[in-house]
Amino acid sequence: MSVAVVGAAECDLGRTGRSAQHLLAQGVGRALDDAGLSPCDVDGLATTGLGRFPATQLADQLGIRPAWTDSTAAGGAVFEMYVARAAQAIEAGQCSVVVIAYASNQRSARSRSIGGAYDPATPEAQFEQPYQPLWPLSYYALLAQRYLHTYALDRSDLASIAVRARAYARLNPAAFRYAEPPLTVDDVLGAPMVSSPLGVLDCCLVTDGGGAIVLTSAARARHLRREPVLVLGYGEAVTHSAMASPDDLLATGAAEAGARAYARAALGPADVDVAQIYDAATVSVPLALEQLGFCAPGEGTAFTGVPVNTTGGGLSYCHPGQLGVLLLVEAVRQLRGECGARQVAGARTALVHGIGGIGSSHATVLLGVRP
Amino acid sequence: MTEDEIPVDEVTAPWWDATRDGRLLLQRCTRCACAQHPPRLLCTACGAGDLSFEEATGTGIVDSFTVVHRAAVPGTAVPYVLARVRLAEGPILLTHLTGTAEPHCDQPVRLAWRPLPDGRRLPVFHPDPESPWTSS
Predict the structure, then answer these.
(1) Least CB-CB distance to B63: which of A130, A146, A197?
(2) Closest partner residue to A243 among B8, B68, B94, by Cβ?
(3) From the CA of A201, how many Å to the nearest CA of chain B?
(4) Considering only CA atoms, which of A278, A284, A302 is closest in space to residue A160?
(5) pLDDT of residue A116
(6) Which of A47, A69, A166, A255 is the most exposed place for a label (fewest CB within 10 A)?
């Protein structure tokens, strides 16, 4: 493919005391600096989450008049979807430099509700909200319960995912849990229960944060300051909106999204050196690894064949409501070899897998650098 | 949203009205015979728009469950047991399990009703002691 990521950055993370719109602009500014570009070079924008017309608002904030925008809303996987749409728009000649961005200040603003927000016009407001699920956590809990039951596993198997996430976070100075001690399985099992079998430490953080990436044609990328990270493939699948809708909780959209991305890139799981997988909860990681073909069903919690979530993930690094853009930022940095203590030696191909809503949307992106 | 403010629309009104009489309805497609829930304008199996309501048997099994320890709505007593119940007819409902502190996946359950302030009722489920698959 002929499109590359040429810039990537986080905005301030954690508890910033900043407003969301300025965090968003900060991430864009840093990503453009990384690329050696400025806002006047940008003619494509994709963002969601802030305001009714998110991309329009960001364009105004930057003082630009983009030729292409996208504010598709599909939960935290949408940034991986934006990569696909941006690559298509660049290849079609509709625009030449795209910024994909997101930011939230939800920890500072205390704006996150554990019950979620139901639109009264949806079927879920009639048939699910009356039962008061935690949204999205109770869905991941239902998934986890079925997962443990099906493969005769227990909570300690899921806890190992949180333990590994903490270990990476302790190698990442930007991680929310960087300065904290290692986790043990017993710590995770002993933490207060939220929605069984998920305890507090099985669930992602609530933090401020976000970031941006910059894409352009591979031809133009060769003249910019950073080593181009090529978009090798992408694929997505949208499967459900209600908790009762999936017939089989364990047959997630990751299988279709992954297969589509592998086919487009002519690659398979054996080619992947490092993976960034959206971990709203511990169970997300093993199930995605299985559905993406890294290991057999039921073996995901024990699988260590590929380094996963090298930032510490949503569990221990940062979770600003939608993590997808930060998965892309870390994949780019790993491929450029910028990750210091947490660097995966010789990483040439990265898989990024976004999961949005209640496992509602899945999107896989394969990125690579030339050997 | 309070319990007497659960919305209803022109497609779901017959379903909600039946709950007043303790009848759990399912939609069935007159073309392909598939059952579905919640009520929709179109059949999710074949796309046909000709759907009728029939009464469900009220038996099912627990597909999965979660014991919720933090109230989604402030003031709600916790814990409560949220579950996906697969009805004998096939469709899955999000619901509550009552009368069991330790449910398990694949457990047989039977329909019960929880009254709402406006006379409608919410379907909930409890362990089915008459099921041949109920473990002791």
Answers:
(1) A146
(2) B94
(3) 14
(4) A302
(5) 87
(6) A255
Q: Distance from CA of residue B10 to its chain's centroid?
A: 19
> CB of A200 within 8 Å of any CB in chain B?
no
A246: nearest CA in chain B?
B92
* pLDDT in the model for residue B77: 94
Burial tier of A7 (Cβ tally within 10 Å: 0-12, 13-18, 19+) = buried
The ranges of chain A with pLDDT < 70 are 1
To the nearest whole Å, the CA of B111 is away from the closest chain A CA by 15
Residue B134 has pLDDT above 60, yes or no: no
In Å, what is the CA distance from A226 to each residue of A229, A325, B72?
A: 9, 19, 46
Looking at CA atoms only, how far is residue B30 from chain A in angstroms?
21
Cβ contact B7–A149 (<8 Å):
no
Nearest CB neighbour to A126, from listed B38, B66, B73: B38
Q: Domain limits of chain B?
A: 3-127
Tell me which chain B residue has its CA closest to the CA of residue A139: B66
Buried/exposed code over A328-357 (b: 16+ C-beta within 10 A; e: otherwise): bbbbbbbbbeebeebbbeebbbbbbbbbbb
B125 shares contact with chain A (CB less than 8 Å): no
Measuring CA to CA, which residue among A33, A76, A30 is closest to residue A363? A76
State the Cα–Cα distance between residues A28 and A41, nearest whole angstrom: 12
| pLDDT confidence of residue A117 | 86
pLDDT of residue A112: 85
Nearest Cα neighbor of A221 from A5, A365, A42 is A5
Contact A145 B106 (CB under 8 A): no
The residue whose two tokens read 């998110």 is A54
* pLDDT average, residue stretch B44-65: 97
Out of B6, B16, B93, whose CB is closest to A244?
Answer: B93
- Min Cα distance A140 → chain B (Å) is 9
- Residues B9 and A126: their CA atoms lie apart, in Å, by 9
Rounded average pLDDT over B102-125? 97
Over residues B24-43, mean pLDDT: 98
Q: Cβ of B69 and A130 within 8 Å?
A: no
Statement: residue B136 has pLDDT above 50: no
Residue of B nearest to A133 (CA): B72
Residue A190 CB coordination number (10 Å): 12
Query: Is the CATH number of domain A3-109+206-368 3.20.20.70?
Result: no
Burial of B70 (0-12, 13-18, 19+ CB in 10 A): middle
CA nearest neighbour of A99 among A16, A11, A14 = A11
- Domain-by-domain residue ranges, chain A? 3-109+206-368
**Per the structure block, which two tokens stand in for A212?**
């941006």
